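Work Package 3 committed the consortium to producing structural models of liganded targets before the mid-term review. Because experimental data for this complex are still outstanding, the team generated a predictive model from sequence and the ligand definition alone, so that downstream docking and mutagenesis planning could proceed in parallel. The input record is reproduced below exactly as it was submitted to the modelling pipeline, together with the SMILES string for C2E.
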Amino acid sequence: MSQTRHYQKVCDVFSRKLLSCTVDTPLVNAVRLMQVHEVSAIFVKQQQSIVGIWTEADCLKIDITKTQFTDVAIKDVMSAPVISVSSQCLLSDATLRFQQHAIRHLLVLDNSQQAVGVLSLSDIVHNQGLDHYLQFRPINQQYCQQVQIVDADTSMTDVVALMRHHRLESILVYNSVIDEHGIITQRDIVELLLHSQWQTPCWQYASFPLIAINSQSSLFDAYRLMSQHHVRHLVVKDKQIKGIISFADLITEIESAYCCELEKAIAQRDIALQKSQRNLFLANKIIDASLDGVMLTRKDGTIIQVNPAFTKLTGYQEHEVVGLKPSILSSHKHTAHFYQQMWHAIAQQGVWQGEICNRKKSGEAFFEWLTIIEIKDPNYDDVLYAGIFSDITARKQAEEKIAQLAYFDELTGLPNRRLFNDRLAIALSTAKRNNDMLAVMFIDLDRFKEINDSLGHDAGDNLLSQVATRIQSILPDGDTLARLGGDEFVLLCEVSRLEILINFAEQILQQVSVPLQINEHHVAISASIGVAVYPDDGLDSATLLKHADIAMYRAKEVGRNSFQLFKPAMNARSLERLAMMSRLQSAIEHHEFELYFQPKQCLQSNKILGVEALLRWHEPTLGVISPAKFIPLAEELGLIVRLDLWVLEQACKELANWRTLNLDAGRLAINISAIHLRQGQLASNVQRLLIHYGVSPAKLEIELTESCFISHFSEAKQELMALKKLGVHITLDDFGTGYSALSYLTKLPIDTLKIDASFIAKVPDEYGNSEIVSAIITLAKSLNMQVVAEGVEKLEQLNYLHSLTCDTIQGYYFCRPITRQQWYAFYQQQLELS
Ligand SMILES: Nc1nc2c(ncn2[C@@H]2O[C@@H]3COP(=O)(O)O[C@H]4[C@@H](O)[C@H](n5cnc6c(=O)[nH]c(N)nc65)O[C@@H]4COP(=O)(O)O[C@H]3[C@H]2O)c(=O)[nH]1
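The resulting structure, written out as tokens with the ligand in place, is given here.
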């Protein structure tokens, strides 16, 4: 039986043909009415109320030998009281009622208790699609096997007496003359009530020939045969007559099976109920324990439940908000359009997620990450909404601060390299379109390092700020002055004529050379300026910047406090670079590279937590060259992957050696170039070498810079995922200096953030820097990442970082980058100390 059947109601199947008569109606008249209307039951009314029922089955209750039928009023032979059922009652419950009262008709009442129709068991059979069910039930024993057979001459009076005595629905009649069987049923008796010819031989009322069915057939075959011939009884006959199967037998069989199913369904429902009660209990426990705020509302937005985290996050107690609308939290910072879009998404997808600014009970605005889910209950026409949120204010503020600082130099407030590059790219495309000229000026302060060293960093910073303000004060609208770092400034100017440009460069020199007051000192400074002009000196950003840089060096060479326009001959300086490049090509074969090691220190335990491998190039004529110089060249020459692989292999050998020496210094980190990551074979190379040297992936750490993800994000992500799958630790190096979109942090499998040394250099004193460092640590913690501060040179820096709960430090304060032998000695020394 299908599951849906349990949910059907009486109103879906009952018959509105409600035949009735008054209490005084003679029985014969009532029977006539039933025949005319082709129904098997009639209801009896008294003053508009139904007080009884008479059905075909009642015909045998009448003792025809004693009663004058024509005089009998229906009230004397009817069944009372009438069992009724509501039209909204489930069919399953109605079926139970049929069984409880052993009846075949129920009076159907509407919501105002008015009789509106009748429900018979046949209605259930016909409307319930029971064909399939009957098909699999054999007739077997489901019929009456005690058949009464009477002779054809038997009077109808005797037949009725026999049927009454044995409570039979039908009886068989044998006519020996024609050797034929016939059948007499209750319906024939009802018919006879109208004629009262009770002494007539019964053969006259018998139906023949008999419609027979094999006992091996299914109940469905019996049902079909009855429907085909419009009869309610069939003779069950194999070789000889075995019994009679009636429509009532079919119904009884269905009833008991139905009740059986119903019992099972109820038992299952009880188990499901217990289960759902337990689930509800668990769900409530989880909601209560959740650190996320949870708010449950009705369809109209009325709040019906909140959890303790909601109270903690908003300040509102449950009783203060239940019954109110979520708008009590509104900060009025979002437009009506914002909410329309939100509800549109919920209507379409059943869920919405996003950032929203709300207000606490205290009036304080806060940002939350909110998920709204539509909950539709299939059993009720009800919709609820669950709002689940976490407070992301601290993270957002940190993100905003870092994003803002990513575009501006915190010391001077000028655009930084990144913003300058963006503006230069835009200016170039406009200049190309309009055939305009553009100039890039490199401004470098002369002998700045000397001032910095003699007067101190604070004085140096003060000087840089004043110079920036002075140049800005003479800057035409639309030009961009940026600080690239240190004492390097760069200017992007619109140029109409070269003379104007020369004049402007002289003005800058003049502005810079006016002595500055720094604390109690008068400081004289000068600048060297190099200028490259689009389109003559270069068509793209990189070329223009390179040529302006070359021109600036030329200005320094020819005497400081001057400017130089770029000339192609100046490219000679880059020839030197070329020479270095060609030497780099053969450096690997000539074993000119060496790995240095710089340990990292855990701030909790003061112990060595890991080591970074740093590359050194021992160039035979130039001496030790810093990676900061040769790595960019190796990238340009396409040598970087080879170089990285060399480092990776040395690192794996080193780790294998550590294992042999039983040296436990945590992970060994290596730097990998963005180009190598994008090339797409990093993970497979790492895996190959780890296996080759028998090193655990957990011992290896890969440091990458943000430049890896700026372009080719998806390739980089794929490669990182593969590394992560291997079990290698991934660290983001120089964090805070590059990429401004922080959303990538949550999309990549990064384990550790390494705060760039330029920020650490100025903590704890300089306001902007300390803020950034603190924001980065908060951000890292909120994303469950470890955080390392690099370039720690002083105790004050270490103490400050310790107070911010920074995990790890690296820098000269703990240990400089050292050779392999020195590193082993350092390790031993640390062991002895601990
Ligand atoms: N002022 C100061 N500096 C400190 C302090 N502690 C460490 N340093 C220096 O800071 C740099 C840290 O490495 P990095 O940020 O990964 O920056 C590295 C890294 O990006 C790259 N690099 C180094 N080795 C490799 C390598 O094997 N492969 C690749 N692709 N790049 C490498 O070259 C950069 C420069 O490396 P190094 O010159 O060795 O410079 C190293 C290190 O010597 C400190 O307390 N104060």
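Reviewers should note the following from the model. The two ends are 77 Å apart (CA to CA). These observations will guide the Year 2 experiments.
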